[in-house]
Amino acid sequence: MTDCYINWMSLVVSIAAFFFSLLSYYNSFMYEKRKATIEAYNHLQVFLHFFYEYQKDEIEDFVNDKHSDEYKVLSECLAQIEFFATGIINKAYDFRIAYQMAHGFLDLTLRSRIDYMLEMKNESTTEHFYYNTEKLLQMMDRKSKRKIRK
Which of 5, 17, 47, 62 would disulfide-bridge 77, Cβ 3.0–4.6 Å? Predict the structure, then answer.
């Protein structure tokens, strides 16, 4: 009887250890994902300062002159935003953390300043180059609308 009891106890302890290991792995994974999100957003901030310096109409003027240095800088900034958005859409980064850090800027201020540029870039090709950026902005809009309703 004691051998059976010991076998059952070791089975229970093994199962508990397995679930504890799974929980530890998940927590570690989520920590790394959140940390990567914060680091990626901090990296993105280096590029976004350009959007703080200029107003929407000035940015539209830069976009209309595709040979200007400002247009090249704007294009690089947009590429960095797309890179960040791709990480969010493909779940390499944590959307909840990104939303908490960036929703006021990305979905309000930045959107008004890059909409024209996105439109112009997508108009000149059959490819949809900034799909992830647009999808991220839509996700932020949906989350903001849910918050307003609550």
Answer: 47
In whole angstroms, give the CA distance from residue 139 to residue 95. 9
- Please state the length of the chain: 150
Over 3-68, what HEC string results?
Answer: HHHHHHHHHHHHHHHHHHHHHHHHHHHHHHHHHHHHHHHHHHHHHHHHHHHCCHHHHHHHHHCCCC
Q: H or E stretch including 88?
A: helix 69-89
Q: What are phi and psi of 124, to 5 degrees?
A: -85, 5
Lowest mean pLDDT among 44-53, 79-88, 93-102, 103-112: 103-112
Residue recorded with tokens 């929703």: 103
* Total-model pTM: 0.79
Contact 103, 143 (CB under 8 A): yes
